[in-house]
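Bit of a strange request maybe. I'm writing a small parser for structure token strings and I need a real example to test against, not something I typed by hand. Could someone generate the tokens for this chain?
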Amino acid sequence: MSHPVSFHPPTPPITPATVATWPVAEVLALFNLPFNDLMYQAQQVHRAHFDVADIELATLLSIKTGGCEEDCGYCSQAARHDTGVQATKVLPIDAVMDAARKAKASGATRFCMGAAWRSPKERDLEKVEEMVREVKALGLETCATLGMLEEGQANRLKAAGLDYYNHNLDTAPEFYSNVVSTRAYQDRLDTLGRIRRAGLKVCCGGIVGMGESRQSRAGLIAQLANLNPYPESVPINHLVQVEGTPLHGLDPLDPFEFVRTIAVARLTMPHARVRLSAGRRQMGEAVQALCFLAGANSIFYGDRLLTTDNPEAEDDRALLNKLGLRAQVTVTE
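Reply from user aminoacidic:
Good idea to test on real output. This should exercise your parser:
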């Protein structure tokens, strides 16, 4: 009979002094648990810190698509990849606000704006600041993902009313060079540091199914869990293979391995919102249900995630209803 691996979540509230350290070996030991034991432990931690019926709904809008100078192997928006994605200009403010109003009307509580930039230029940042102010005035939480931030840029976004900044680590440090060469892992960590110092909340996760090993998936979760403090939102993406990208044609990740990743994220970051992000359309309802059981309590909601398909809002509402789950209601002053 196997014995559960002990876990050591920090005592709330999260402060730098109480964040636990997770060596990769301990995280890997969680991954290696029998599936039922892992799910049981994840459920215990989830129930200790959240209402398990509560699911946060977030909507993501691409405010500037394609033409990115980076070479991320998974991304359809890289200019060097022949994916059929055309580069566009920044959306006008009216189009952004129309999308934000629709998102709020359909039940979303957080509105995320993504732009395919290596990092925003001055003229770009001014436009995003206006978008943040206007979306915030609707009573929605605001989030942006604009690439790397220079000194002072995070502070400006904070002053405009931004709540969260998304900047993913993508994968473990040792696997990173297999995916990206145009920016270093430390560049990502440096941007996360600027976000924290500006007083913004952090949305940071990664992508699985890129050909990495379980050891590398454990390395990614360890990196996230050992951030000081760890992110408030942790999006776990399942690679959506896009023809024309270097990662197209890989053998798909076993669905149970994806569920294990969700459960380990929940165990190591007990207070975080663990979000099902890209790849939900390919999962089907049964795998999504297992992910909620494993501790996922946030989803991207709407029919598009930047350039890839996402389950439609109606389908999501039907699934939540089947499972007895409900959308989180957030009151924003």
